[in-house]
Amino acid sequence: MTTTTLDHIRAAVVMCAGADPDAITPEARLDALDVDSLTLAEVVWSLEDRIGKTFEFKTRPDTVADLINLIESTP
Questions:
Q1: Architecture of domain 5-73
Q2: How far, in Å, CA of 30 to CA of 39, rounded?
Q3: Best exposed site among 2, 30, 32, 46 by fewest CB in 10 Å?
Q4: What is the pTM of this model?
């Protein structure tokens, strides 16, 4: 089975924020998943380790879809 970007995000958010995996959908707001600024940094570091890329964003992502776009648009 291929691991998708959403799978990576789901694992990172569960690990860092303790969110319910079923609640982590592209439409989900990060604040609703208890991802505050510090937790977002932890999630991004976890994703960098998992995926092997460094992510930089100019504005704070608000949704899981924003994170997906960030990851998939990073070369």
A1: Orthogonal Bundle (1.10)
A2: 10
A3: 2
A4: 0.92
Tokens of 29: 């707001």
User: How far apart are alpha carbons 59 and 57 in whole angstroms?
Assistant: 6
**What distances in angstroms separate CA 74 from CA 30, 50, 51, 70, one per listed residue?**
20, 14, 11, 6
For the CA atoms of 47, 50, 52, 53, what is the dihedral angle to 10 degrees? -10
CB contact at 8 A, 66 and 25: no
DSSP the chain: -PPPHHHHHHHHHHHHH---GGG--TT-BTGGGT--HHHHHHHHHHHHHHHS-----SS---BHHHHHHHHHH--
Express each pLDDT in 19-56 by its tens digit.
Answer: 999 999 999 999 999 999 999 999 999 999 999 999 88
What's the CA gap between 74 and 33, in Å, rounded? 24
